[in-house]
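Sanity check

After download, print the first record. It should look like this:
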Amino acid sequence: MTRSTMVAAFVAALFATGLGGAALGAGTPRDQQALIGTLEQHSKRLADAARNTKGGPQQELLLRRARLRSLIDRLQKGEQIDPSEIDPLLR
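Expected structure tokens:
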């Protein structure tokens, strides 16, 4: 499965399960925790991919992971996040 297919499937599943609304602050705390868990899994995959990569592509993966971690921290603090902020980090 290509990365873009994986991202599209993730985003579709996110909104199909109603977690997309949680990103806007409209979901329940349980939905928000599920979203955070999903984003943390993606962060781990980025870290794993970066470990197996070198040079510029590795730095790009690490930068995306850092931005994703920042987004996770904001969600954990209860801030409202627009889904358009999540999408670029999952590509």
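If your output differs, re-run the checksum step. Summary of this record's structure: The mean pLDDT is 79.
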